[in-house]
Amino acid sequence: MCVHYSLDEGGLMILVTGGAGFIGANFVLDWLQRRNETVINVDKLTYAGNLCTLKSLTGNPLHCFVQVDISDRSALDLLFSRYAPRAVIHFAAESHVDRSIHSPEEFVQTNVVGTFTLLEAAREYLDRLDDDARAAFRFLHISTDEVFGSLLPGDPHFCEMTPYAPNSPYSATKAASDHLVRAYHYTYGLPVITMHCSNNYGPYHFPEKLIPLTILKALNSESIPIYGDGQNVRDWLYVRDHCSAIRTVLSHGTPGQTYNVGGQNEKKNIEVVQAVCDLLDLLHPKAHSSYRDLIVSVSDRLGHDYRYAIDMRKIKIELGWKPAETFESGLRKTVQWYLDNQHWVNEVQSGEYRKWIEFKYTNVRKSQGR
Ligand code: NAD
Ligand code: TYD
């Protein structure tokens, strides 16, 4: 276990796993801008975890970064007994569908075994708490809409009662972790809440996912790869809206319940990529051409889910949460952020990143008429 900053024990604290990744880091930064409550940030620092995202917190006594694998039970036990958090917010996961298709083992290890290990450590910790602390404790599990499988055009949106039908190794391991989380509530009374969110986008997004990949490919004048015909549909949620939904659920959600969170922005992939290109044409124009000219069609993803769509009436009606950003406002902020933060991009584009991009995007096929 490697502790980067230390702080006094005592006082209210939350323990965040995966807080050096995209959503977890946005959550930690957002939390510490708004609250005076310590965050114990537990992250293994895989290729997706970047301490440079957390640079602004250096020296902040309310942030304690600990490099730990969530499958390491003794390290987790030590953290629970040392810091006595009032809540766990569990983001840590292997999260990229394409990587899960090429090497699923790590997904089983972290998403299933890691979540199991964290649940066991939390269960034992809870047994030692007094009744008040036990009643106040929460275990928030950050899941995905992908556990519900794939929709056809016209199918009703995913609601909290939609049966599970995961299609990729990634979504299958997330589904397995959801089932474990649910079972720990039913069997042991662990006060868990699971959130199913749609595709997040925003600052600090690792550039292997569609939106940051498109921005960086465009800025480097490289081909922008669209899988297949670009007609697959995702719902897009601005990451800081997701953070506000998590804070709402942490404060007001009911243990044992699940909540779906979306951005009310269903878009075809081609529409998303074109929107990014159009924003770049506006904010960072090229001399004689549009960024759209860089869009190419490449081989489709194996088992590519056609459509995800979220019915989020439950969180809206029961907890009064709704997203603040439209797709247009969130995307503009995102593109502007990447234009303004080239140093972050350079830092995260390590050898590991370049290896993946070379492996994945060789032999792109140029398509006509985009
Ligand atoms: P990410 O890949 O950017 O970050 C994951 C973080 O977890 C990284 O910092 C990594 O170092 C850490 N990690 C990985 N394995 C670990 C381990 N064994 N022990 C400790 N830390 C480990 O992921 P993200 O996009 O920030 O996603 C966060 C969570 O939200 C995940 O659970 C993911 O399934 C879920 N989710 C993400 C999206 C999205 O659009 N990004 C959508 C729905 C759900
Ligand atoms: P991604 O960002 O990987 O998220 P997810 O697979 O979790 O939805 O992909 C979003 C969509 O974009 C998905 O339908 C796959 C597609 N896609 C491309 O067309 N080209 C790409 O280079 C990538 C990474 C994704």
UniProtKB/TrEMBL annotation:
Residues 15-334 form the NAD(P)-binding domain. The gene is rfbB2. It comes from Candidatus Vallotiella hemipterorum. Its cofactor is NAD(+). Pfam families: GDP_Man_Dehyd. Belongs to the NAD(P)-dependent epimerase/dehydratase family. dTDP-glucose dehydratase subfamily. GO terms for biological process: nucleotide-sugar metabolic process. Keywords: Lyase, Membrane, NAD, Transmembrane, Transmembrane helix. GO terms for molecular function: dTDP-glucose 4,6-dehydratase activity. Its EC number is 4.2.1.46. PANTHER family: DTDP-D-GLUCOSE 4,6-DEHYDRATASE-RELATED (PTHR43000). The chain crosses the membrane at residues 12-32. The keyword NAD applies. It catalyses: dTDP-alpha-D-glucose = dTDP-4-dehydro-6-deoxy-alpha-D-glucose + H2O. This is dTDP-glucose 4,6-dehydratase. The keyword Iron does not apply.
